[in-house]
Amino acid sequence: MPELFNTTRLQGKTAIITGASGGIGASTAILFARAGCNLVLLARRKEALEEVAAQAKAAAQTMGQNPQIVVRTLDVNDRTAVDALVPALKADGVKSFDILVNNAGGAVGTERVGDIKMNDVDFMVDTNLVSLIQVTQAFLPEMKRQDSGHILNIGSLAGREAYVGGAVYCATKHAVKAFTQSLLKELVATGIRVTEVAPGFVETNFSVIRFRGNEDAAKAVYKGFDPLVAEDIAEEIVWCAMRPPHVQIAELFVLPSAQGSATILHRKE
Ligand code: 8X3
């Protein structure tokens, strides 16, 4: 763990992560565990979640930590399940709700407006935006009661720049940015901090889903330059959470060094 990371600030806090079964969510879980956090890991795939929990536990042990890790399968689009989440976590023995990372989300398809399937619209709007709002509202009363907490929403380059073939994804991420900004303003009189972490190209399963399972198309996105990897964003998220209580990183826009915009990439070959 680099010196820059004052791990004592996070020790004993509970970090709740949606979309924790892979990619940025999984890496973030492991890094929070190394920093001494207890974890609540949420995602649809039980087996993958349990694997992440085991990795997080092992990583924490190498740092002399023994965190409580609660794993719950959850589809963030299941409104009833999200409503039942906080009472269920309390029954699981979760005592505080300190850090919420709204990470679940994704892009499906690259069709242009006119050809976008309404199922894909529903999935992206529900997963990237509506669920993020519902999950935030589920935990906010607890954080208000504690008068402490940190909500970190995963935004995107797509929340700053609208590009061809990404109308709905870009719209949802612009909305996440607006929602996050309103939330930050509404909470200034509380001990709750709000952060948007907005990455550019990160090589995870993201593009495989965007290209509907076409691995070659997904690989081509990251060809000829060093993209960000999930661990890079995990470091940024944990770094934001580790700032002293009077420091609120409102927005963190992170690009690979070879990326200038959605379409400006310096590719070596
Ligand atoms: C990050 C992906 O393609 O919008 O969310 O930069 S992209």
Task: Give the topology.
Elements: E1 14-18, H1 23-34, E2 38-43, H2 46-62, E3 69-73, H3 79-83, H4 85-91, E4 99-102, H5 118-146, E5 149-154, H6 167-186, E6 192-199, E7 202-203, H7 206-210, H8 215-221, E8 228-229, H9 230-242, E9 251-254
Parallel strand pairs: 1-2, 1-4, 2-3, 4-5, 5-6, 6-9, 7-8
The chain binds 2-hydroxyethylsulfonic acid.
The site of 2-hydroxyethylsulfonic acid has 7 residues, from loops.
Class inferred from helices and paired strands: alpha/beta
List each distinct ligand once. 2-hydroxyethylsulfonic acid
Whole-number tally of structural domains: 1
N-to-C CA distance:
34 Å
Radius of gyration: 18 Å
Helicity range of the residues?
40-55%
GO molecular function: oxidoreductase activity, acting on the CH-OH group of donors, NAD or NADP as acceptor
Organism: Cutaneotrichosporon cavernicola
Coiled coil: 39-66
Protein name: NAD(P)-binding protein
Protein described:
By secondary structure, this protein is of the alpha/beta class. It is 43% helix and 16% strand. It has helices spanning 23-34, 46-62, 79-83, 85-91, 118-146, 167-186, 206-210, 215-221, 230-242; strands at residues 14-18, 38-43, 69-73, 99-102, 149-154, 192-199, 202-203, 228-229, 251-254. α1 (23-34) crosses α9. 40% of the residues are buried. Bound molecules: 2-hydroxyethylsulfonic acid. 2-hydroxyethylsulfonic acid binds next to loops.
